[in-house]
Design goal:
2 strands, 43% helix, 6 helices, 175 residues, two-stranded antiparallel ribbon, mainly alpha
Length: 175
């Protein structure tokens, strides 16, 4: 079983069931075979190759030397899996550029897309409030279009509901 599978099954009672003594598995060390340390079970990161990873290098550079030396390869791999492997998310609009010159540079990032995260309670309240505001604004715009259309239809048909009163919209459009 790989280290990744071991770490993913940690805390899972079904995954921690031990095989019966009559049925030894190939992964159990036999008396002739010494048990191998967990750090060497990761074949792709054996012999210190995890230390060549850009995320791990940056992490270790920003960690005090005595603490950085105390990490095992397995711990570093778990740190990378937890914090360093976030792939670039796909957005409907994804604009990333650098602006500047003459010794100064600023980056500009504009992302737009569907939110796939679980919202906190405060974010849910804000989202609900914005939905209500959008619905109210849409209702107002739709109502205004309907009333204006009905007024123009009335004026086109020559119906005079209020004598000697006009908003002047029809005369402005026909002039």
């Amino acid at each position: 079983m790989s280290l990744l599978a071991l770490s993913l099954n940690k805390g899972n009672p079904m995954a921690e069931q031990q095989p019966t003594p009559q049925q030894p598995t190939p992964q159990q060390p036999t008396p002739q075979q010494p048990s191998e340390p967990q750090t060497q079970r990761i074949s792709s990161f054996a012999n210190g190759s995890i230390h060549r990873d850009p995320f791990i290098r940056s992490f270790l550079d920003n960690t005090p030397k005595d603490v950085a030396d105390s990490f095992t390869d397995a711990q570093l791999l778990q740190l990378k899996l937890m914090f360093g492997t976030r792939a670039k998310a796909r957005h409907t609009i994804d604009v990333r550029t650098v602006l500047g010159g003459f010794g100064w540079n600023y980056y500009l990032v504009f992302l737009f897309g569907r939110n796939r995260r679980d919202l906190t309670r405060a974010e849910q309240k804000a989202a609900n409030a914005s939905r209500i505001l959008v619905m109210l604004a849409g209702t107002f715009v739709l109502f205004s279009i309907v009333v204006t259309s009905l007024y123009l239809l009335k004026s086109f048909l020559g119906i005079d509901v209020l004598p000697n009163f006009s908003f002047g919209l029809w005369t402005w459009l026909t002039s």
